[in-house]
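Hey, can you fold this one?
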Amino acid sequence: MIETLFDGITRRSVTTPRLTASVLERPGRDGGPTVVFVHGNVSSSLFWQPSMLALPDAVRALAIDLRGFGDSETLDVDATRGLGDFADDVASVLAELGVSNAHFVGWSMGGGVVLQLLLEREGLVDGLTLVAPVSPFGFGGTAGADGRMLSVDGAGTGGGGGNPDFIARLAGHDTSDEAGSPRGVYRSTYVNSYERLDFEDIWVESMLTTSTGVGNYPGDSVTSESWPGFAAGRRGVLNTMAPTNFNVAGIVDLAFKPPILWVRGADDVIVSDTSLFDINYLGQLGVIPGWPGQDVAPAQPMVAQTRAVLDAYRAAGGSYTELVLTDCGHSPHLEHAAAFDEALAAALQGAATPGAATPTD
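Sure. Predicted structure:
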């Protein structure tokens, strides 16, 4: 049995009217700020432990397992609410803990969760750090910086895009290093150079806590008349990020706009303008047959869409900083921990982010 908790981190269960959730905590000093970490898809709060321990001593760090992940309760996900079920769960846990406001850190899908919290929970979010976040227009099925939908039903997005072999390996608790295993996926897509990183067994155990099924990962799907023949369903994790269900570009119109730090890896293959998880881009590469061409099914410009929304957020009175880390994949907080920790600490102090840049790619 692998010990998954780091020294200095405690775990407890918190029961709310919505669910019983598992929460990791690194205590801070009385009166210090609170930072809430929200993990991404096929992961759990375990991934945040190094970042939690690196925070200044005064800061209280909380990391919440979303429903169906980690040690939290497995409940069906209503994808028609976008990431709303997850966001409301997080808010309910914080209410139970007496946390009225905090700085939020969201990774990948978790970035979408904290953006939905910003959009719907006035006063809760003091600041945001987005780590390789899902596009404000969801995952797949859109084009252009404005997130124009390619089809009315979101063809090619949602639960139908899940890999059956990978799902079976998750359900079977496969810890091998075969290419399609969770460990293989971690090595090839979560990070850019896994050989130099520690704690891989813990990260794999975290991935294996993912609840599989129609109501959880990946979710259901429906047939579509548009290529590739399926579209997002109404239940489960992947459908929460389909463009038919998820759009948080409305943060631009908020009256209160807390500062945002956007951290991403230059070599990310999951959230990218050429994502290896985007059905349309895989069609362009010839991996999925029958691709109808660039005019009909272009790859989603995920990074460009995030930048466009954040530029509009800034133009409307908000502020954001973009930090791009080279030789870095989908997990900047693991791959370049020192740079990430420094940037997060600076964001908590309202200072400029060291080494920040605004690229044009």
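The chain has a mean pLDDT of 96. Let me know if you want another pass with a different chain boundary.
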